[in-house]
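Model it.
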Amino acid sequence: MRCLLCERLSLAYLCRFCRDRLLAPQPAHRTLSGELTVFSFYGYESIEPLLQAKYHPFGCRVLRHLARASLRPFFRDLSLEHPTALIAIDDRPGEHFSHTAVLARHARSRHLPYPPGRLLAQSRVRYAGRDLAFRKAHPRNFTLRPFKESSALLIDDVITTGSTLKEAAGLLEKHQKTVLFAVVLADADRA
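Modeled.
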């Protein structure tokens, strides 16, 4: 098989060179509408072939590696004052698996539980490749299932316009949950 990034012959989906050198996380953050801070670890273009793997059965292995390299160290060093849950954006399994559930499982800890299936989209519209006008015209219409923690951290794979994260944060706040920040693997606004 070939490495998904450099296309060298490899026994794994990612060759050792790409795993060790090209996929070193480079944390950054941006703030949406002056309210919600979103932390990211990669520029979208730098890992686009890996993110597209979420549409294939082997994609969970690729996402697992990305989560171990970036999310796990980030959350391991995180200390929070209030009971906080890790809430994955629409972690309902798709055709093969739920990409946000894979990420959340590798980010959770004893002090940061991941209660699955809490924030589910009622609209099944795919946003991939769509502009802001389309996203605003077709909201996700999330439903929220209860969880005991008073605060939440949102987790998703990619941020482009931020409309999904803002909609999710708004719903949680309507239910008296404090959204501390969001974490994504990749940011489309980063080079």
